[in-house]
Every structure is written in structure tokens, then in C-alpha cells.
Amino acid sequence: MALTQRSALYRRALELIPGGVDSPVRAMRAVGLDEPLFVRNGEGAYVDTEDGRRLLDWVMSWGPLLFGHADRETVEAVREAALCGTSFGAATEAEVELAAEIVDAVPSVEKVRLVSSGTEAAMSALRLARGFTNRDRILKTAGGYHGHADALLASAGSGLATLGIPASPGVPTGAAADTIVVPYNDLDAAADAVMRYGEGLAAIIVEPVAANMGVVPPEPGYLETLRRLCDVSGALLVFDEVITGFRVSRGGAQERYGVLPDLTVLGKIVGGGLPLAAFGGRAEVMDLLAPSGPVYQAGTLAGNPLATAAGLSVLRRLRDPAVYDELEQNAALLADGLGPLGRVQRVGALLTVFMADRPVRNFDDAQQCDTERYAALFRHLLEQGVYFPPSQFEGLFPSTLHGEAEIERTVAAAEAFGH
Ligand SMILES: *Cc1c(COP(=O)(O)O)cnc(C)c1O
Questions:
Q1: Does the beta carbon of 116 lie inside 6 Å of ligand 1?
Q2: Fewer Cβ close by (within 10 Å): the C or N end of the chain?
Q3: What is the spatial distance between Cα 229 and Cα 222, in angstroms, rounded to a whole number?
């Protein structure tokens, strides 16, 4: 039955692209859809699909679009840059300006390097941490996502604080074995792992607000303890702020919670909706990168002129604190309105409706949620023209264009869903 209902476009996509999509979540299988949404264009808080629907979009390209789709200032900046040439593979003034904007905003970052994706930024930050410490092991949290580099596609072995095992075919056992995986928000597990592996530990990498298992805030003291564990063991603390950077405050989660990492990974908002990401930190560490130091890292399109123009057009506007006040207020309003559906967890303009009746503290808790019910909610909202994240384990990403009308409409649609 599903076959006959598939659009010609999806059938063609399936013939040409594995699963018909360039990133798995887009297939929407977790919420039981027969085919992906093919988006034709976006405007503000809305997208239009190829089959002629206009949807209120809470996914917003998974976070980059703080000022909405087709934001005029961004589009104009990209257009102007494109007229001057789309890539040089050479240094430009705009990349220096974007670096200055990042260093000004993010408390722990003294120097920064631009790359093209969050995956690349996280992978490079870890290589740098390993080069700086002359150690191999890293520690990550279960359900923490840092892109798809080999070492980061590791799952917990059996038992507390054991060496990791590959989370995907194709990941070498050795790459995963240097990755220790512990539950998020679990101080004892982290301390135990550092006790066991501290001498060989290059870095602890963590999303300071977990946002790839649904949104899970750090419990009081958690980030502080990770900082302390790094200080005693000599490992570097790496905050993956690809989602939280410029979202939960201008300076990211490190500003909001007052805990400073050694290295910070940025993506999504920093590129204003174009492919750009970054990693930065203390000058002493960053200067180990080639050509000023021996740790190799490079990129043909790194600091691409279109992407730096888009990033600059967005980041410059974030100096106005009113942006964050408005995001905070509206996100709180939305969270209140969605409260009856389940357990809403929110930090700034970043939230998830968990189909749970208890707090979700880690990936295990998240996996206990009623994902069938979430899928039913997703499909119900989609029928009402409201596009929620197509998975229980993702966040909603309000923009400044998600105002009262959009919130009211979403809450009304949610109320029609049987509790
Ligand atoms: C999206 C994401 C990444 C990966 O970024 P890509 O640009 O998709 O490679 C890394 N870390 C976190 C926390 C993310 O949310």
C-alpha cells in the first residue's frame, strides 16, 4: 500500500539516494511516515512542501535559523558575497570578522578555526585535544551526539565506565575502544571513568545541554564536576555547543551556566543557515593547529565567503539582548501551552515534549518515553499543518519569527490531540 502512495519524486529519490534522503532523520520513519517532506521553500516560521502544503515549522533546519527562513538580511548578505565570488580557498577579511564575533561572544574562546560542518568541528577539536595532551582516550555521554566521526559513534560496553564498542558497522573496534561512554548527568559514572582512565584521558566531550536525546538540561553541579574532573586528570573539557551556541544565550551554555570549557564546538546558528561550523578555545591549545603548530587540520571550503557572510549577518544582530529576551519569553509561553501533553523540558529557545510523566535526566530515561504516542502526536500536528521534530529525541527550535500567533496555533492544535 505504501508503495502506491509514494510520490513520483520520492520514488525517484529512492532510486538515486540511499533511503531517498541525505541524512537519515529526514526519512521520518521514527514517526511512521511513508515518505519525507520535500520542502520547496521557506518563509519566516513556515515552509511549503512540494505537495502544496504550508507548514508551521518548529524544526527550522534543526536549529540554525534563529531569524527564520529566507531572512532578508541573511539572503542579502549571501547575495552580495556571491556576486564577489563563491570560493577562493584563500584568506578573506570576512572570516577574520566572523572569528572576532565568535571570540567576543563565547566566553572561553580566544582563538577559533572555521570549518564546514559540526561533524568536522567536533572531530577536529578531539584531534587537537589528543595532540595537546598526548593522550588517546576520550569520554562522552550516552545519547550525546557530536556528529558522525568514527570515535564518536561509540556505544557503552556492558557495565559502568567500560571501553566503547562501535555504534555503526564500519567503525573500527579500535576507534570505539578509545571512547568511554557514561550516562549523562551521572556524576559517579564520570568520576569512576576518570579514576580508571584519567591518565590516558585526552578529553571529556559533552553537550552542556543535551539536545540530541530530546532536551535534557544539566543538573546543578554536573558541568562544574566535569570541569573539576578534567582539572584533576589533565584532560581537556570540550563543550559541544553546536546546538546551544548562540541559542541558550549569546555566549551559549557556558555563559548561561558559568562553566568554561577548554575547547568549544560550534555549528548551526554560527553559519546562519549555510554550511559553516567552528571550534575554538584557549590560544595556547588552538596554536597547536597547523600551520602554527603540528596538529594537522584543513579545509578547501573552510571559511567559505557565502557562509561567513551569512554567519556575520546573524551574529551581529545577536549583540542585542532583546533577541534573547523575546526568544525566552515566547519559548516559555509555548512550553506552558504544551505542558498538558507530557513532560516539557526547556532551556531558552530549545525544548522537547517528552511523552513521560517523570523528569528525563539521561538517554535511558528518554528511551523509556512512549515513542508511539509521540509519533501519533507528530502525525496529528502535521495534519493540522504544524511540523514538529519527527522524533521524540529531538528538540523544537523556535526562531524570533515564532510569535504569539504561531504559539497559539500550535497549542490549539495540540489541545485537539487526545491526552
Ligand atoms: C548537529 C550536531 C552536530 C553535527 O553537526 P553537522 O553539521 O550535522 O555535522 C554535532 N553536535 C551537535 C550537538 C549537533 O546537534
A1: no
A2: N
A3: 11
CA of 179 to the centre of ligand 1 (A): 18
One-letter amino acid for residue 13 of the chain? A
Cell of 208: 552542556
| Residue nearest (by alpha carbon) to ligand 1 atom 8 | 118
Cα–Cα distance between 25 and 36 in angstroms, integer? 9
* Ligand 1 atom with minimal separation from the 144 CA: 13
The closest alpha carbon to 273, from 86, 64, 80, 77, belongs to 64
Rg (the chain; Cα; Å): 21
- pTM over 0.85? The answer is yes
Q: What are phi and psi of 312, to 5 degrees?
A: -65, -40
C-alpha cell at 27: 526519512
Give 41's strand partners: 48
- Ligand 1 pocket test: pick from 120, 242, 266 the residue with the most ligand atoms within 8 Å of its Cβ: 242
All cell numbers assigned to 24: 537519515
Cβ neighbours, 10 Å, residue 54: 11
What is the rounded distance in angstroms from the CA atom of residue 129 to the CA atom of residue 264? 11
User: Regarding beta strands 46-49 and 137-141, do their DSSP bridges make them parallel or antiparallel, or are they unpaired?
Assistant: unpaired
- Compute the distance from residue 122 Cα to the ligand 1 centre, in Å: 8
Check the CA dihedral 28-29-33-34 and report its sign.
positive
Cα 94 to Cα 231: distance, rounded to the nearest angstrom? 36
What is the CA(185)–ligand 1 centre distance, in A? 20
Catalytic residues: 145, 240, 268
- 3-class DSSP assignment, residue 62: helix
Residue nearest to atom 11 of ligand 1 (CA): 146
Q: What is the pLDDT of residues 7-33, one digit of tens each?
A: 999 999 999 999 999 999 999 999 999
Helices (H), 136-181: 173-177
Query: Rounded CA gap, 230 and 232, in Å?
Result: 6
Beta bridge mates, 206: 239
- Locate the ligand 1 atom nearest the alpha carbon of residue 147 and give its number: 4
DSSP-derived secondary structure letter, 248 = T
CA torsion sign, 172 to 173 to 176 to 182?
Answer: positive
Per the DSSP assignment, residues forming a β-bridge with 181 are 140
Nine-digit cell at 397? 527550535
Domains detected in the chain:
3-58+322-415 (3.90.1150.10), 72-317 (3.40.640.10)
DSSP conformation class of 163: B
